[in-house]
Structures are given as C-alpha cells and as structure tokens.
Amino acid sequence: MFVKNKMTANPWTVRADATIPEAIATMKDRHVRHLPVMDAGRVVGVISAGDIDANLPSKATSLSVNEVTYLINKLSVAKVMSRDPITIGSDALLEQAAVVMREAKIEMLPVVDDGRLVGVITESDVLDAFIEIMGFRDHGARLVIGAPDVPGALARLGAVTGKHGANIQHLAVYRGSGETSDVVLGINTPDTAELEADLAEAGFVVRGRLENA
To answer: Using an 8 Å Cβ cutoff, are 83 and 48 in contact?
Structure first.
C-alpha cells in the first residue's frame, strides 16, 4: 500500500507569519493536532498542539491575563514551529512512512511531491491501514496458525484451505525466533471446524481463532 492510498489530500495548513491564535483556531475548527506550515507555496515547518503548549506562558506566571493574551497574539507560527520537517513522497510505501514516524518519534508527515504539498499522513492513518490490511473488521474467521518456517509451508496451507473452498482474504506472517512462525489467516467463512481438523492433520497448529459476524 502506498502513502497516497491513505494520506489526507489537500490538508489544512497555516502560514508561517500567522499568529498562534490563528493556528489554534484552525486546529480546533478542523479537529487536527498538527498543521504543515507554508511560506511561498513550500512547506517550511510543522506546528503541533504540543509545540504551542510548550511555548505558552506558565500558569504560574505573574503576568496578567491581558498581558498573556497580548504576548500570545504577537507570537507567530514561525517562532514556534518545528523547522525543516521530515517529509515523504506520495509514492512511498506506507511501511516507509511508519518507520520514519517511529524512528523520528513524530505523529505526522507532510507528503510532498516535486516540492509541492499534496497531503499529510498521520499515525492514525497508519493504524487504519493496518486494520484494513489485516481485515480485522471483515466478515469471516481469523485463524492464528503455527506453521513450520520452511519453503513450501504457505503453499501447503493454501492447499488445505482450498480443499474446503475457503477464500484467503488476508494473510500475515509473524516470524518467530525458532523453527515455526505464526500465520494469521483471514478467511471468508466463520465455519472452520473441519478446516481446523485438516490443518492439524497436515502438521499445522491452530493457536487462536476469532469470528467476525
């Protein structure tokens, strides 16, 4: 799956010379916590609710409410934003975006093609994609199967499911540290008793089962 398949296209942005109250209002109105910061049509930074909170006067300040409001109104987005943000292209794999966000400990990536902002991808987008890829909400059954970590194991697994007319809709492999791996199999039928028996006979171990109505 590519970033362009899950990103939010034409995202809300804020100008670098906008005030902090303007950025707060945009985040509140659009129900977002991060905004790409634009200057002359290019992404020059990212501002988050956390950035704003970190730059607001402490609640223990001796300043009056009017003084605090005045200072905030004079504070520009450019003074608070994270500069030179990490970006990613729309044709990058979603896994690449996930790794970048995880390693950089950030929650959003501007998606930039040829210097132009075309979208944003967030942690929530990645989680939604994971749920979709794994088919967790799809009708049918999910089996967690212990399989030998050898060539041809998936082919044998497919042959058993095919014998029962079960369509494999989703498949994931979690490789263990030993000689077996866990295969998560999403199939289109909730009736798996006979299939499970044949899997056991073929040398597989059914370690878990979940039925989605």
So the answer is: no
